[in-house]
Amino acid sequence: MVKAQRRIPSVSIFYIYRMPLLLRRNIAVQTMLAIWQISEPDHWFRERLMLNDAENAHIDSIRHPQKKLHWLSSRLLIRELLGNPNDFIDLTSDDRGKPVIRNFPVDISISHSFDLSALLLSEKLKVGVDIEKITEKVERIQFKFMATDELHSLSGKNDREQLYVYWCAKEAMYKWYGKKELDFRAHLAVARFDYRESGTLTGAIRKGDFHKELPVHFEKLGEYMMAYTVA
What we know:
Layout: E1 13-14, E2 21-28, E3 31-37, H1 42-48, H2 53-61, H3 65-81, E4 91-93, E5 99-101, E6 107-113, E7 116-122, E8 127-133, H4 137-145, H5 148-152, H6 159-177, E9 188-190, E10 198-207, E11 210-221, E12 224-230
Antiparallel strand pairs: 1-2, 2-3, 3-7, 4-5, 6-7, 8-12, 9-10, 10-11, 11-12
């Protein structure tokens, strides 16, 4: 039997200083975005989580310290946005690798980059989020995810930031779709947009008979770019 979820607080935007929760924002009906700035050791997270034996064994098997912190911080973000329930949160993946909470009726999307973890959680909508640290890496791989017309749309100013908007937007749509098997150049499209540090663009998923336009919000957060979509 599925347990009822506690209602997500209806707060438009606020910041929490008593915890390393960098951002917590209500972005749609019963839909919450949160970003955690990781500065704690792994034992700090483990003391605050309700983990089963399999999860503890999985954490112990993660050799890379930052990946271990990514795993733990995303689990604590989920617990925070669900209102810190007394129940074990049964987080697994479906047969396509999408994260799923089996005992709470919500849709979630998770993203990590360096010392940030992002979570988008909704009781009503499908969601996708991506966050990336802005580095020169994107210029080396742009041809792997940008279609020719998208490359031609670059303005010549803030090209690196624009490239990250394209990348994050396509990652967010990919996660929203949740079925993998998408080619970032052939199946995911981003309409021409004017770059600024925060805005909304139109994205589209086109594969076979499936066609879906999605609004994608993007935002520069210091050294990071974030994009998300809900629909």
